[in-house]
């Protein structure tokens, strides 16, 4: 089996932290025989310049490389000025197991790119403005801080469980005002008094006796006490860091406020959520071929798995690790009102497909709406918005003489019994 050669002079690079193995493949147009030249370079800036000059000296202006971690970024920044760089996901250029070396990997990438068998990554086409890139870095750092805070809260919950404290089962929020005040009192005093605990409970708490029962028989060991103090101090520090990130994001987002305010017209998307969404997808929707490509890039579209005319169950991809969870949170917020547009859509899909698939479907709908709102500047107004939110009452059928006679005939009515 032979493949059509599309690029007669092209290159492939196997990228590592400290090493780059580059290959140039030159194909003869008559015999279609390819000759290869290989050379290794370090990742220092001086060697990157030498790598670019090496490609140019061999008239090789089409180069393909893997998007390995963050290692590809400085290489891409240096080479993109004069070379046509194709960045691809490693899974699309993975070599055969058992025959992997750096030189073989580089040659394999070159061969695939030569025959145009490499799927381009979305990143080279979608390089947003500097302001958006900076916002994205801060937004993703905030996301990491939120994950760290969640991990610390889970550790704190484990300490409560070990100490026989069941506050999480008695209050709605184990880190709310009531639970926090009670835990401070428990950490300070060895013996608890019900009167002091009752004064610390918020007036809106209905079952106060249940809170007192959850504290019976508690015993905080010295190791758990130290761990809880450390965790709470870390949580307070993370809260301050998250607030600082959000303040910086809002300050940087002010020049682009028209985009964010426009998106917040969708129910379930707050101002902060809109800033985080735009920091991921940018403000130029022309970079996407269609809304389907954006949805696929965000990891909200299922794959295809069909064989012998049978469609098998599929799952969504792992892409969009920052954007997808955010859209799911917005979708969960939008369906709280069951009479809203997305609430009605969710209830209909949930009956057939279940909660998880329905939420992903709502998140996908919201992203499609965001795409068209930014692209065209139109307001949130889906074509079926009115029919869903304000359904017209069904008209009662009008009974005519013909329909009445037909109804009587279908009911086997005896017309001979009628006296005229």
Describe the protein's architecture and organization.
The chain has 420 residues and is of the alpha/beta class. 51% of the residues lie in helices and 9% in strands. The protein has 17 helices and seven strands. The chain has helices spanning 45-57, 72-79, 102-114, 130-162, 167-170, 177-188, 194-200, 208-214, 222-253, 257-263, 271-281, 291-297, 323-334, 341-353, 355-376, 385-389, 401-410; strands at 9-15, 19-27, 34-42, 62-66, 84-88, 306-307, 310-311. It has a five-stranded mixed beta sheet with strand order 3-2-1-4-5. The radius of gyration is 31 Å and the shape is flat.
Summarize the structure.
The protein is an alpha/beta fold and 420 residues long.
Question: Top keywords for this entry?
Answer:
flat; single chain; alpha/beta; 420 residues; 17 helices
Record the SSE blueprint.
Blueprint: E1 9-15, E2 19-27, E3 34-42, H1 45-57, E4 62-66, H2 72-79, E5 84-88, H3 102-114, H4 130-162, H5 167-170, H6 177-188, H7 194-200, H8 208-214, H9 222-253, H10 257-263, H11 271-281, H12 291-297, E6 306-307, E7 310-311, H13 323-334, H14 341-353, H15 355-376, H16 385-389, H17 401-410
Q: Major beta sheet, specifics? A: 5 strands, mixed
Average pLDDT across residues?
86
Rg on CA atoms, Å = 31 Å
Number of alpha- plus pi-helical segments: 17
